[in-house]
Design goal:
Layout (H helix, E strand, L loop, with lengths): L5 E5 L6 H8 L11 E2 L2 E2 L5 H8 L2 E4 L11 H6 L11 H11 L15 H13 L5 E5 L7 H18 L2 E5 L3 H6 L2 E6 L2 E2 L1
Helix pairs in contact: 4-5, 5-6
GO molecular function, one term: ATP binding
Keywords: ATP-binding, Nucleotide-binding, Transport
InterPro entries: AAA+_ATPase, ABC_transporter-like_ATP-bd, ABC_transporter-like_CS, ABC_transpr_LolD-like, MacB-like_ATP-bd, P-loop_NTPase
């Protein structure tokens, strides 16, 4: 995949789309083969190197994984809370919530947000480190078509405006068509 492009991972349920995203994001470890990101083979990285690598990857999970006791603002800040940053964490989180159209809901808990709003908070959270690589697992799967379309617009604008590489696992043919390329998986194999 070329830097600054968008690629859709397609295929039936159980084909390995989510697993591939987890491998690229170093959430799961490889048991064979290799994955090279930005010229670095990530399978052989030490624990400390993997932690540093993971901070360069934004991950948007299918089920959002927002912390229920934290506000939208605090959910966005959470990934960088334990780290020193060159930016003001609160200010960055507010800017990202504004980017996804939710600055006015910064104090809301996840239970007070719609599914689309929760997905937008999850996207803002994934961007808090301004990652060059954004991985999204079925980002429109739990949303109505109108909300899903706005999420697709947002993800692709990140590619266009920030130069992020966007890899999306999806069953949505409309989303796949809007990406720069598509890779089809079946039974864990690229077909």
């Amino acid at each position: 995949m070329e830097r600054g492009t968008s690629v859709a991972l397609t295929g039936p349920s159980g084909s390995g789309k989510s697993t591939l995203l987890h491998l690229i994001g170093a959430i799961e470890r490889l048991d064979a083969g290799s994955i090279v990101v930005g010229g670095r083979e990530i399978g052989g990285l030490s624990g400390k190197e993997l932690a540093a690598y993971r901070r360069t990857v934004g991950f948007v999970f299918q089920r959002f994984h927002l912390l229920p006791a934290l506000t939208a603002l605090d959910n966005v800040i959470a990934p960088v809370l334990p780290f020193r940053t060159a930016f003001d964490k609160r200010q960055r989180a507010l800017e990202l919530l504004d980017l996804v159209g939710l600055k006015d809901r910064a104090g809301a808990l996840p239970s007070q947000l719609s599914g689309g709003q929760q997905q937008r908070v999850a996207i803002a959270r994934a961007l808090v480190n301004d990652p060059p690589l954004l991985l999204a697992d079925e980002p429109t799967g739990n949303l109505d078509s109108r909300t899903g379309e706005s999420i697709v617009d947002l993800l692709l604008s990140l590619r266009d405006d920030r130069g992020a590489t966007v890899v999306v696992a999806t069953h949505d043919p409309g989303l796949a068509e809007r990406c720069d390329g598509s890779l089809r998986l079946r039974d864990g194999v690229l077909v």
